[in-house]
Write a structure and sequence with these properties.
The complex is a heterodimer of chains A (about 500) and B (about 325). With about 500 residues, chain A is of the alpha+beta class. Chain A is about 40% helix and about 15% strand. The radius of gyration of chain A is 33 Å and the shape is elongated. The N terminus of chain A is likely disordered. A two-stranded antiparallel ribbon of chain B has the order 1-2. In chain B, a hairpin with a 2-residue loop joins β1 and β2. In chain B, α3 packs across α10. The radius of gyration of chain B is 37 Å and the shape is elongated. The C terminus of chain B is likely disordered. At the A-B interface, β7 of A face loops of B.
Chain lengths: ~500, ~325
C-alpha cells in the first residue's frame, strides 16, 4: 500500500531474507511471538477451544440408532461402507451428499474470504490452531519472547537439553492425542480405545496414529508458519481472490508515517505520525511478519498485531486502530479524509451475497434431498446369457437379479410385485415354481442390500413387453420403488 | 565454422550473483543455479535406499536370473503364498462338501451357495465349450449346431435332481469304457420306412405338441416301433433316457425336416465322464451349479437302495 505498484504477492528485495544474492535459499527466521491480550486474542482463544473441543469430543457423542446400527453420532464406517452423522446415514451410492457438503465447504471458504478476508487462516485452520497451541506450550515451558530468544542463542547445556526434552515431550503428547483422536472417527470410539491400548486394534490404526503424530509434531512443533508461507496453496488462492473490497489487517500508513518515538514527536510536533515504531506488532506476530510493509502472503489476518497496537496507542493516549481490519478502498477513502466506514457495510455487497445465495442454495437442495429420500430401493438387472428360456410346456422364462435395499436400521419385509406383463408370474429362492405368483414377500436384514434371483415366466404366445418390478415396504411408511425392465421372448426363427 | 565456435565462458551473473553455465544464445544465458538443499538430500537418501534395496531384494539381472537378495523375496513366492492361503481357506468347505451326500446338500443353504459359486467357476473352465457360458447349449443361438442340451430349462433327459445330475457328470452319457455311463440308442430307420411312412410318423410325433395333424399311418408305426421307449403318448422315459416328444423342447430341432432327419439318421450326442478328471467335490459343485440354473428338480427319495458312488470315490 505504501507503493501501490507493487503487487501483494511480490516481496521487495529486502523481504527475501538475510541471504545474500548468492544464497537463493531463504533461511528461516525463528519466530518467537510475544504474549498479548486483547479482543482478537480472546476471540482466537474462543475459536481454538471450540474447534479443539469439536475435534476431540465429536467421536464420543452417542446417537441411538437401534440395535442394528452403531450408536456413534459421527462415524465413517469404511468397512461397512456407511457414513453416519447424527440422524443422517449415507450409503456409498448417496455419496453426492458428501460431495455436496464438500462443495459447500469450498464455496463457504470463498464466501468467508469475500466477507471477512482470510479469517479461515487466522482463526479456524488446523495449522493455525495447532501452531497456536504449540506456541502456548513454548511460552509455558520457556517463558515469553525474550526468554525464548535467549534460550535459543544459549549453548547446549544440561538445562537447555532438559528444557528442550520437556517441551518436545509435551509436543509429542499433544501430537499423539491429535492422531489418536483422528482414528476415533473411523470406528466405535470406546471399543477402539480399549483395543488400542491392549494391542488389539488393526495395524492401520497404529500406522495412522504414528503418521499423524509425526505430522503434528513436525508441522505444529517446528514448521509452523512455513507451512502457510511455502506449502499451503490456500494463501495463493487467497491472493487471487482478494480485491480492494476485501477485509484485511491493514497498517494505516497515512496515519502512522513518519514513524517516530513519543519523545521525538513531542520535540517536533506535526513532523511524525502516530506510529511510535515500538515494534510490538512484529513481536506478537505468529508468522513473524511486519504488517507495516503492507498486505503480504505471510499475513494470516489473526489480528494479534491489532491487539498489540491498540494497547500501545491507549498507553500513549492516541486513538486505537492504527492497525485495523479495513478494506483497501476504505483505506484510500480514509486517507483522503473520509470517516471510517463500519465493517458490516463491507459484508453486504454483490459478491458476498452471490456467494451466500449459491452456498445457501446448495445447502437447501441437500436438505430437501435428505428430507425426501426414501429408505427403500430396488434395482433389477435382466440375465443376458441366456436372455430367455423356453420351457418344456412352451412358456417363456426370463431371469432377473433384483437388489432390494433396506436402508433402515431394522429388519423389514418387502413385497416385490410385477407391474405389467399380464399372465406373468414369478418365483424365487424358497418359493418354488409351483407356487409362482405375481408378488413375493422378501425379508431383508437391517441396513443391508439383498440380492435375489427372480424367475419370471409367461405363458406361450406372450409377446415381448416392457414391465416393471415394484417393491413396497410392508410397514406404515409403505415406501416404494420400481425398476423398469423388458420381458424377452424367442425370436420368430426359433 | 569450427574455428568460429566460441569457447563457453563462465562468469558471475551480476543480478543474481550466480554462475552462468557459459552457453549463450543471442544474448540469452543460462544460470547454473544450485539445486535446493532438500532436493540434494533427497537424492542422497535415494542412493542410500537403493544400496539397501540391492542387498535385500532381487536387483542385478544375470544370465539366468537376477541376483536373489538376502531376504529371498520374489513375486512368484508371494503368489505361491497367497494361493496356499486361499487353498487353506477353501479346505473346510471342501471337506464339508466331501462329507455331505449330494441329496442332503440343499438342506445346508450356506454350503449350497459355496457349492454353486465353486461350480460356476468350474463350469466356465470345463463345460462352456459345449454348453456355452450361459449353459444354454444349442439354444443360445439358432446358428449353433443342435444337440448340446440347454441346462437352464426344465426338460431333463436323465433326471434333473442333484443326484441325477451328479451321476450324469460322473459317468457321462454314451461314454465308452465306463460301465455305469448313461446309455441310450435311437435306432436309424433309413430303408425301413418308405417316404410316406416317414411323413406319417413325423406328423404323429409333431401332433403330440399340436404342431401337426395326427396321422393314422404314423400312429401305427409309432406304436410298433417307438412307444416302447418314448411312451404311448410321447412323454419319454428318463430311466432309458428317451426324450419327451410332447413338449416344446427339441434337442436336435423341432422343425419338420429336423424331426425327419432324427428318425432316419439319428444323432446320439456324447457327454464325457468327469470321474477321474475332476475330483468328486468339484463334480458335486458342478451339479449344484447346474441345478441352480432354474430348472433343477427336488430330490425325491425312492425305495431303491441309495447309491454309494459318493462314498466310494477317493
Amino acid at each position: 500500500m505504501n507503493n501501490p505498484d507493487v503487487s501483494w504477492t511480490e516481496h521487495s528485495r529486502s523481504d527475501l531474507g538475510s541471504g545474500g544474492p548468492e544464497e537463493l535459499f531463504e533461511k528461516r527466521k525463528q519466530v518467537h511471538p510475544q504474549r498479548i491480550d486483547g479482543n482478537f486474542r480472546r476471540f482466537k482463544w474462543l475459536v481454538m477451544i471450540a474447534t479443539l473441543a469439536i475435534y476431540y469430543i465429536t467421536p464420543w457423542l452417542r446417537w441411538d440408532r437401534g440395535p442394528f446400527a452403531p450408536d456413534q453420532a459421527v462415524l465413517v464406517d469404511l468397512a461397512n461402507r456407511r457414513f453416519y452423522m447424527f440422524g443422517i446415514e449415507i450409503w456409498p451410492h448417496e455419496f453426492y451428499f458428501v460431495a455436496g457438503l464438500l462443495i459447500m465447504a469450498g464455496i463457504g471458504l470463498f464466501l468467508v474470504t469475500s466477507a471477512v478476508g482470510r479469517a479461515w487462516c487466522g482463526y479456524a485452520c488446523p495449522q493455525t490452531v495447532w501452531t497456536d497451541l504449540f506456541q502456548h506450550v513454548d511460552r509455558f515451558v520457556d517463558g515469553d519472547r525474550n526468554a525464548r530468544m535467549r534460550l535459543d542463542k544459549a549453548p547446549w547445556g544440561a538445562s537447555k537439553i532438559a528444557r528442550r526434552s520437556f517441551k518436545w515431550a509435551i509436543y509429542l503428547f499433544i501430537s499423539f492425542w491429535t492422531g489418536g483422536a483422528w482414528i476415533m472417527y473411523f470406528a466405535d470410539a470406546p471399543t477402539l480405545t480399549a483395543d488400542f491400548w491392549t494391542g488389539n486394534a488393526a495395524a492401520i490404526a497404529y500406522i495412522t496414529v504414528a503418521i499423524l503424530t509425526l505430522m503434528t509434531f513436525t508441522l505444529g512443533g517446528f514448521m509452523r508458519e512455513q507451512v502457510c508461507i511455502y506449502m499451503c496453496p490456500w494463501p495463493r488462492i487467497q491472493s487471487a481472490m482478494l480485491d480492494e473490497k476485501s477485509l484485511l489487517v491493514t497498517y494505516k500508513d497515512w496515519r502512522g508515517e513518519k514513524r517516530g518515538s513519543v519523545k521525538k514527536s513531542e520535540k517536533s510536533p506535526g513532523e511524525y505520525g502516530d506510529c511510535i515504531d515500538c515494534n510490538q506488532c512484529v513481536a506478537v506476530c505468529p508468522t513473524g511478519i511486519d504488517i507495516r510493509e503492507g498486505p503480504q502472503i505471510g499475513c494470516i489476518t489473526c489480528g494479534l498485531c491489532i491487539d498489540a497496537c491498540d494497547r500501545v496507542m491507549s498507553e500513549v493516549g492516541r486513538p486505537r486502530g492504527l492497525i485495523d481490519y479495513a478494506t483497501l478502498d476504505d483505506c484510500d477513502a480514509e486517507a483522503a479524509g473520509a470517516e471510517p466506514r463500519p465493517v458490516w457495510k463491507t459484508l453486504l455487497r454483490p459478491r458476498t451475497l452471490i456467494y451466500f445465495s449459491i452456498w445457501g442454495g446448495i445447502g437447501l437442495a441437500l436438505l430437501f434431498a435428505l428430507g425426501t429420500r426414501t429408505h427403500t430401493e430396488l434395482s433389477a438387472a435382466a440375465d443376458r446369457n441366456p436372455p430367455f428360456m423356453l420351457m418344456s410346456d412352451g412358456s417363456v422364462r426370463n431371469a432377473f437379479t433384483l437388489k432390494i435395499r433396506n436402508m433402515e436400521s431394522r429388519p423389514r419385509t418387502f413385497t416385490v410385485a410385477l407391474d405389467g406383463l399380464d399372465g406373468g408370474v414369478m418365483w424365487s429362492g424358497t418359493v418354488s415354481r409351483d407356487n409362482a405368483a405375481r408378488a413375493l414377500t422378501i425379508a431383508v436384514e437391517p441396513d443391508q442390500t439383498k440380492p435375489i434371483r427372480a424367475y419370471v415366466v409367461a405363458p406361450a404366445g406372450t409377446a415381448a413387453a416392457d414391465f416393471a418390478f415394484t417393491v413396497t415396504s410392508n410397514d406404515e411408511q409403505a415406501e416404494t420403488d420400481r425398476s423398469e425392465v423388458r420381458f424377452v421372448v424367442p425370436g420368430a426363427e426359433q | 565454422m569450427m574455428a568460429n565456435r566460441k569457447e563457453p565462458v563462465q562468469r558471475i551473473d551480476e543480478a543474481t550473483g550466480t554462475k552462468t553455465v557459459g552457453h549463450e544464445w543471442d544474448g540469452i544465458e543460462e544460470l547454473d543455479t544450485p539445486m535446493p538443499r532438500w532436493w540434494l538430500w533427497t537424492f542422497y537418501l535415494c542412493i542410500l535406499f537403493s544400496i539397501v534395496y540391492v542387498v535385500l531384494y532381487p536387483a542385478w539381472p544375470m544370465l539366468e536370473k537376477a541376483t536373489e537378495g538376502t531376504l529371498g523375496w520374489s513375486s512368484r513366492g508371494d503368489l505361491a503364498n497367497e494361493i496356499s492361503v486361499a487353498d487353506q481357506a477353501r479346505t473346510t468347505v471342501n471337506e464339508q462338501l466331501a462329507r455331505i451326500p449330494i441329496e442332503r446338500l440343499s438342506e445346508d443353504s450356506a454350503l449350497m451357495q459355496q457349492a454353486v459359486a465353486g461350480g460356476r467357476a468350474a463350469f466356465l473352465v470345463n463345460c462352456v465349450q459345449c454348453h456355452g457360458s450361459g449353459a444354454a447349449g444349442s439354444m443360445a443361438s439358432s446358428s449353433l449346431a443342435k444337440g448340446y442340451p440347454n441346462l437352464n430349462d426344465d426338460d431333463w433327459l436323465w433326471g434333473g435332481d442333484l443326484k441325477a445330475i451328479e451321476y450324469t457328470l460322473t459317468h457321462g452319457i454314451r461314454q465308452q469304457g465306463d460301465e455305469k455311463t448313461r446309455f441310450s440308442q435311437m435306432p436309424g430307420f433309413t430303408g425301413v420306412f418308405d417316404d410316406a411312412q416317414v411323413e406319417g410318423l413325423v406328423d404323429h410325433v409333431l401332433a403330440f405338441s399340436g404342431k401337426a395333424k395326427p396321422s393314422a399311418v404314423g400312429a401305427e408305426l409309432y406304436a410298433n416301433n417307438c412307444a416302447s421307449c418314448h411312451g404311448a403318448n410321447g412323454l419319454g422315459d428318463r430311466a432309458q433316457g428317451a426324450p419327451n416328444l410332447a413338449d416344446a423342447i427339441w434337442l436336435y430341432g423341432g422343425a419338420r425336416s429336423e424331426v425327419r432327419r432324427q428318425i432316419l439318421a439319428p444323432r446320439n450326442g456324447m457327454m464325457p465322464k468327469w470321474e477321474g478328471r475332476l475330483d468328486p467335490v468339484t463334480i458335486k459343485m458342478l451339479a449344484a451349479y447346474v441345478h441352480s440354473l432354474g430348472g433343477g428338480e427336488d430330490f425325491v427319495e425312492v425305495a431303491e437302495s441309495p447309491a454309494v458312488e459318493v462314498d466310494e470315490q477317493p
